[in-house]
Amino acid sequence: MELSDIRKALDTLDDQLLDLFLKRMGLCEEVAAYKKANNIPILNRGREREILADVMTKAGHLEREAYHLFATMMELSRSRQAELIGAPTRVGQFIETARADATLAFPQTGLVACQGLEGANTQEACDKLIPRGTIMYMKSFDAVVSAVEFGLCEFGVLPIENSSHGSVRAVYDLLQNRPVSIIRTTRLCIRHELMALAGVKLEDVTEIHSHPQALGQCAQFLEKNPQITAVPAGNTSMAAKELAESGGRHRACISSHPCAALYGLEVIGTDIQDSDNNYTRFVCITKKPTIYPGANRMSLVIACDNKPGALYEILAKFSAVGVNMTKLESCAVTGRNFEFVFFLEVEADLNRRGVIPMLEELERTCQSFHFLGAYGEV
Ligand SMILES: O=C(O)C(=O)C[C@]1(C(=O)O)C=C[C@@H](O)C=C1
Predict the structure, then answer these.
(1) Of 260, 286, 312, which closes a domain?
(2) Burial of residue 177, with CB atoms counted within 10 A of its CB: 0-12 exposed, 13-18 middle, 19 or more buried
(3) Catalytic: which of 89, 186, 236, 280?
(4) How far is the CA of 272 from the centre of ligand 1 (A)?
(5) If you measure from the C-alpha of residue 329 to the centroid of ligand 1, how many angstroms do you get, rounded to a whole number?
(6) Which ligand 1 atom minimizes the distance to the CA of 27?
(7) DSSP state of 61
(8) Cα(153) to centroid(ligand 1), Å
(9) Burial class (CB in 10 A: 0-12, 13-18, 19+), 114
(10) Residue 309 lies inside a defined structural domain of this protein
(11) Does residue 313's CB lie within 6 angstroms of at least one atom of ligand 1?
């Protein structure tokens, strides 16, 4: 057969398939009405397993392809049913409240909780996120979240991930477990400098103090200087201040450029980070759920069943509504053997049809689901 003839035959089949698909979705809409009236959950894993087993038996050598086609169709069916049933979900309620409050432009002033001291990278992030904000410095990430949770500060700024060192697990843990949400993000190029008291040379240094993330981002420098011990500090700027106060001449710190002038230290090494492409992303959080106009990204933390295809099912939901995933990182659940959660970021406009039902469907079907916020990046 000529290619053009094959294509004609394909067109005819596609028309028939589309017709059948629309009929199938129509029946699923009837199922949705029945389920709503009788309070029956949308997902019926047993029924889906039966259908998939039957399809695979009938599909012969194309069993794998047929499995994916039918799994996707049922995925779309569930998503449509969820849209029609509109049963309340935490994520649906969050979005409704957050959007109703978002009539104002993004705030430019207010009290901002920031971990560290003057000169910390987070301070630069605060200035970008809330341009005329007043910064209150806190000792820990936990204290930043508490300041926001208990109303001491309207905003909090926290580092959430680094291009070479990955997600800041402690921040993800706080965001999942405390009543705060992300309202904006920003990205900074981070350069690390080695600083010491005036006159101290690299050969004199036996200890380098800094935040564990900064030490990790300068791992190659530390490997090249095995005589030096890395000592964790609360923050890069705290490390600089503590060094200045200690008077230690065997000590250095890894901090950002402004810290040298701020704490009277001398720079004895510049750009000591492993990669020049070293970026850290920071989030701005608030207690009041708010989604500002123009929000085009979302952060989620999802745990799924430990079984083949579980992650695929999640990704299929994004694919079904055309959502682009910009981050997917798996992370072991603390205290459990080989159980993982996924940190995700997706680009999605909440106004696009199907996006909110997709989130609701994820909440209904995943083992755990945390919506950390919908926001724009500056
Ligand atoms: O049979 C049902 O209960 C349906 O909702 C239909 C359907 C399907 O598309 O075939 C969709 C969701 C269920 O998980 C099982 C099957």
Answers:
(1) 286
(2) exposed
(3) 280
(4) 56
(5) 30
(6) 6
(7) G
(8) 47
(9) buried
(10) no
(11) no
The single-letter code of the amino acid at 216 is G
Give residue 248's domain range: 193-269
Amino acid letter, residue 217: Q
Q: Rounded to 5 degrees, what are φ and ψ at 364?
A: -70, -35
> What gap in Å lies between CA 32 and CA 38, rounded to an integer?
10
Domain end residue (candidates: 286, 313, 341): 286
Number of domains in the chain: 3
Residues 158 and 114 both lie in one domain: yes
The reply to whether ligand 1 has any atom less than 6 angstroms from the CB of 47 is yes
> Does residue 41 fall inside a structural domain?
yes
182 and 108 together in one domain: yes
Task: Name residue 287's amino acid.
Answer: K
Residue 43 beta carbon below 6 angstroms from any ligand 1 atom? yes
Give the closest residue (by CA) to ligand 1 atom 3. Answer: 44
Which of these, 185, 183, 208, 210, lies nearest to 120 by C-alpha position? 210
Are 48 and 178 members of one domain?
A: no
Note whether residue 365 is domain-resident: no
Residues 43 and 144 in one domain: no
Rounded to a whole number of angstroms, the distance between the first and last alpha carbons of the chain is 56
Whether 342 is a known active-site residue: answer no
**Per-residue model confidence as pLDDT tens for the chain (378 residues):** 899 999 999 999 999 999 999 999 999 999 999 999 999 988 898 999 999 999 999 999 999 999 989 998 998 898 889 888 876 789 999 998 898 666 678 889 999 999 888 888 889 999 999 999 999 999 899 999 999 999 999 999 999 998 888 888 899 999 999 999 999 999 999 999 999 999 999 999 999 999 998 999 999 999 999 999 999 998 899 999 999 999 999 999 999 999 999 999 999 999 999 988 889 999 999 999 999 988 999 999 998 877 778 888 888 889 889 899 999 988 877 666 667 789 999 999 888 888 998 998 889 888 889 999 999 999
- Same-domain status, 129 and 248: no
311 alpha carbon – ligand 1 mean position (Å): 20
Is the beta carbon of 80 within 6 A of some atom in ligand 1? Answer: no
* 175 plus 209 within the same structural domain: no
Task: Quickly count: other Cβ atoms within 10 Å of residue 143's Cβ.
Answer: 16
202 with 230, same domain?
A: yes
Ligand 1: atom nearest CA of 44 is 14
- Whether the CB of 319 sits within 6 Å of ligand 1: no
Ligand 1 pocket, 297 CB below 6 A?
no
Question: Is the beta carbon of 90 within 6 A of some atom in ligand 1?
Answer: no
The answer to the question of residue 2 being in a domain is yes
The ipTM value here is: 0.99
Task: Let me know if 369 is a catalytic residue.
Answer: no
The answer to whether the pTM exceeds 0.90 is: no
